[in-house]
């Protein structure tokens, strides 16, 4: 056994890694995370990692810059790389190789020069999820399906190669953090933060098993829960289970809802489990090899049937283990395990031939699946020695020959310039391979119950595949195909209507996007009645002149205290002791309008606000500390929650804009939305019909800061603030609302620094950190990292010269206190939790 930890592949001490995967041929290894504060995927040549004498110039094959890559997975049968990026699954295709490019350094950016390989984005699967995708998995052996799971509690199944959404699996009530297909492709296991593991059938897409027992009480302290099936398909191993108070990895038998065995020994939560995808023959017995990674920086290797620890590696990284990937090189008999950590490092364990036993061949594995599950599975194989064999482009032509064709064809390409200077180039067909003959795959025989004394139940029946024009090769248990099927990759279609935003904690929907309804819209009623503390009653009616009258009636005297008239029918009414909030439906302009009235007199306090989306709910809550202040909460059918802060004299723009659709399980509803006032800060609280309570901080300015401090005094006397009506109006109407708020907070920080106001500087800095963590700005990670680096630099630097420095913070302890406060804020957000680990 040899342990390799290449320093040149690390993403740096202040960077992070989220996923690692070795392609089935063992040519490439893809790592995803942050490198030089930029989200990217870097593809390395595996042979250059395992062989120290390999040419250093050809280590990096390609770099792909993309937003927040949380998971990368190569397909089994074609040169496709699936990437979980925000709410989408991006599919990259290897389009060309450049054998003449051999001197690209590993630090190169995607915009610098060329790479030995060219990977192009050909399809984006963005029609299923409304929140960040955490894990993806290809269906084994044939890539028939691609499954993805997200923090929106759902699992999306996409068909391949059509790249269309087949179905959405709903049933989890928490974040779904891991997926795994069984080796036959008949079952899909998923693990969620709701404390359950579910097993789904790929024939009916129904949940067949729900396991709860070993996961009850497990805290949501892991970013991923990556589980895996054994290569014989008889069991799967989960992440983050509990035995009393000890973290374990639970082994669950196929078809059973009970735990068969537990892998113990780790001191912290298990985050990832990976089986070697081949059955091993050890002393004549068939056994499976399992690798388990934990947050305690420990990697353990186990043999199953019976359970037996094989190897334990302590203090593997500076942080925990997030992802692992196996590769078996049949030519040389080497077995490689790749491991990555959020600290930015990765390592590879290489086992020599015979150290782990004798793995079954592809033909033997296919025969095993046929005998055990009565299904014919063609295990694809493409032998490549050390990555030297040239990779074809999927059409039978090598990329080198295609490159020569390009050079000869470009000489005949015509170009002309338009009057404005733009170039107009006539497109030419570079390569047209002969069409492959259509082969209709033979239908698989229907599986029958296995006549065996084994306690493993038979799998669900698999439907015969439909006819397709894609070139495929069927195989029998004794004859396995050695050719790769390259499907036709569809060009990304027009963006589907729906929620498409890049945020984890704040999924904001612009008004220009027509979104899919996730909550039922409010129905228009002829008469609305709303009582206020059993003292007054608000009632609507339609007059004969086609106007709508709102009356406030005293319950004791039964007389109307006041009346107000509207041109459109009233859709919803809510009231407190001092305010009345109502929404009218403007059928002419196809929009809704929000009005606020004074409860005592019925006077309109502000101009009406146009609501650009369909209304699903209206709520109002008064401030318990100040009865002259209230908050209005508006829920749209898309799941967007907007909260307005209002007083007798002013109404602020939405103090909260966040999508809450992923918080509610199917068939759940919102019971109430109110504002909780505590320590001069407001928290918007949401209660669901499932009994859950969610709180959202609106980052209100504490009252003690508004009356003290040099910056506060100057702002009140000479400057404009965010509370000015003109600023509020521009801020609310601007499509760059978050950028304006961020710029304002940054300006306040610099003003506090110039005035040497320690208290105000700390407040505005932590406010900016909290705002960025909750925003949907694309560069928020870069800004947060810059702020934390600045604080950490002063914590670990030499004492500061007080006379020369303009910073209000003087000592290392002051910087350390502000840094700790920022880290406490960022721990509450999933997409910044990995960033925190580098500064602890």
Automatic annotation (TrEMBL):
InterPro entries registered for this protein in UniProt: HIR1-like, WD40/YVTN_repeat-like_dom_sf, WD40_repeat_dom_sf, WD40_rpt
Annotated Pro residues bias: 435-448
Keywords per UniProt: Chromatin regulator, Nucleus, Repeat, Repressor, Transcription, Transcription regulation, WD repeat
Keyword Hydrolase tagged: no
Biased composition (Low complexity): 467-488
Residue stretches of each WD repeat: 169-210
Gene Ontology MF, one: nucleosome binding
GO cellular component, one term: nucleus
Annotated region described as Disordered, given as residue ranges: 389-418, 435-503
SMART domains for this protein: WD40
Gene3D superfamilies: YVTN repeat-like/Quinoprotein amine dehydrogenase
N-terminal signal peptide: none
GO biological process, one term: DNA-templated transcription
Subcellular location: Nucleus
Biased composition regions of type Polar residues, renumbered to the chain: 389-413
Keyword Repeat on entry: yes
Function: Required for replication-independent chromatin assembly and for the periodic repression of histone gene transcription during the cell cycle.
Family note: Belongs to the WD repeat HIR1 family.
Protein name in UniProt: Protein HIRA
Species classification: Eukaryota, Metazoa, Spiralia, Gnathifera, Rotifera
């Amino acid at each position: 056994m040899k342990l390799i930890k290449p320093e040149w592949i690390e993403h740096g001490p202040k960077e992070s890694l989220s996923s690692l995967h070795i392609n089935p041929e063992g040519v490439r290894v893809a790592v995803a995370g942050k490198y030089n504060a930029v989200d990217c995927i870097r593809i390395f040549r595996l042979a250059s990692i395992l062989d120290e004498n390999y040419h250093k110039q050809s280590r990096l094959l390609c770099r792909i810059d993309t937003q927040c890559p949380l998971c990368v997975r190569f397909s089994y049968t074609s040169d496709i790389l699936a990437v979980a990026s925000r709410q989408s699954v991006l599919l990259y295709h290897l389009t060309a190789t450049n054998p003449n490019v051999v001197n690209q350094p590993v630090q190169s950016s995607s915009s610098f020069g060329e790479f030995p390989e060219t990977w192009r984005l050909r399809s984006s699967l963005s029609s299923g999820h409304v929140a960040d995708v955490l894990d993806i998995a290809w269906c084994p052996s044939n890539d028939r399906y691609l499954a993805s799971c997200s923090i929106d509690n759902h699992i999306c199944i996409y068909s391949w190669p059509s790249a269309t959404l087949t179905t959405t699996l709903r049933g989890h009530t928490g974040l779904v953090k891991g997926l795994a297909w069984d080796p036959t492709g008949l079952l899909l296991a998923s693990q969620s933060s709701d404390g359950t593991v579910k097993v789904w059938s790929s024939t009916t897409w129904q949940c067949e098993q729900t396991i709860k027992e070993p996961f009850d009480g497990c805290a949501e302290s892991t970013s991923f829960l990556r589980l895996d099936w054994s290569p014989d398909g008889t069991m799967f191993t989960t992440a983050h289970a509990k035995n009393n108070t000890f973290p374990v990895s639970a082994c669950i038998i196929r078809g059973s809802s009970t735990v068969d065995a537990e892998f113990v020994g780790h001191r912290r939560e298990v985050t990832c489990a990976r089986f070697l995808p081949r059955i091993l023959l050890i002393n004549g017995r068939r056994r499976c090899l399992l690798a388990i990674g934990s947050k305690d920086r420990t990697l353990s290797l186990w043999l199953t049937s019976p359970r037996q620890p094989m190897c334990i590696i302590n203090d593997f990284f500076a942080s925990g283990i997030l992802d692992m990937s196996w590769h078996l090189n049949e030519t040389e008999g080497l077995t490689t395990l790749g491991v990555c950590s959020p600290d930015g490092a990765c390592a590879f364990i290489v086992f020599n031939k015979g150290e782990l036993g004798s793995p079954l061949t592809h033909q033997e594995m296919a025969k095993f699946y046929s005998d055990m599950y009565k299904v014919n599975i063609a295990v694809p194989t493409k032998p490549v020695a050390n990555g030297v064999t040239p990779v074809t482009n999927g059409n039978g032509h090598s990329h080198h020959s295609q490159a020569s064709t390009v050079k000869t064809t470009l000489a005949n390409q015509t170009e002309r310039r338009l009057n404005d200077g733009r170039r107009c180039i006539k497109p030419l067909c570079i390569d047209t391979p002969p069409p492959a003959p259509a082969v209709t795959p033979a239908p698989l025989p229907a599986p029958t119950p296995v006549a065996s004394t084994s306690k493993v139940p038979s799998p669900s029946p698999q439907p015969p595949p439909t006819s397709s024009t894609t070139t495929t090769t069927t195989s029998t248990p004794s004859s396995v195909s050695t050719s790769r099927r390259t499907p036709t990759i569809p060009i990304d279609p027009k963006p589907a209507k729906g929620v498409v935003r890049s945020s984890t904690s704040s999924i904001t929907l612009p008004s220009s996007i027509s979104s899919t309804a996730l909550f039922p819209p409010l129905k228009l009623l002829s008469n609305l009645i709303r009582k206020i503390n059993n003292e007054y009653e608000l009632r609507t009616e339609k007059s004969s002149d086609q106007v709508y009258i709102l009356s406030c009636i005293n319950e004791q005297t039964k007389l109307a205290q006041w009346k107000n008239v509207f041109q459109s029918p009233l859709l919803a009414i809510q009231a407190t002791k001092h305010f009345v909030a109502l929404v009218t439906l403007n059928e002419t302009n196809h929009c809704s309008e929000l009005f606020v009235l004074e409860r005592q007199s019925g006077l309109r306090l502000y101009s009406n606000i146009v609501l650009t989306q369909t209304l699903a709910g209206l709520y109002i809550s008064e401030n318990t500390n100040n009865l002259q202040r209230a908050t209005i909460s508006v829920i749209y059918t898309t799941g967007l929650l907007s909260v307005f802060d209002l007083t007798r004299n002013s109404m602020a723009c939405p103090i909260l804009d966040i999508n809450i659709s992923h918080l509610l399980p199917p068939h759940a509803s919102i019971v109430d939305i109110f504002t909780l006032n505590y320590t001069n800060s407001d928290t918007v609280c949401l209660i669901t019909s499932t009994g859950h309570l969610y709180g959202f901080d609106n980052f209100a300015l504490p009252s003690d800061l508004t009356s003290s401090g040099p910056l506060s005094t100057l702002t009140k006397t000479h400057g404009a603030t965010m509370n000015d009506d003109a600023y509020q109006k521009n801020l609310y109407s601007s499509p760059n609302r978050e950028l304006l708020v961020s710029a304002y907070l940054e300006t306040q920080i610099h003003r506090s620094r110039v005035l040497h106001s320690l208290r105000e500087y700390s407040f505005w800095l932590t406010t900016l950190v909290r705002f960025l963590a909750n925003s949907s700005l694309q560069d928020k990670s870069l800004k947060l990292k810059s702020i934390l680096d600045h604080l950490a630099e002063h914590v670990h630097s030499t004492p500061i010269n007080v006379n020369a420095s303009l910073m209000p913070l003087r000592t290392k302890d002051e910087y350390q206190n502000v840094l700790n406060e920022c880290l406490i804020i960022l721990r509450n957000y999933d997409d910044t939790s990995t960033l925190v680990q580098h500064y602890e």
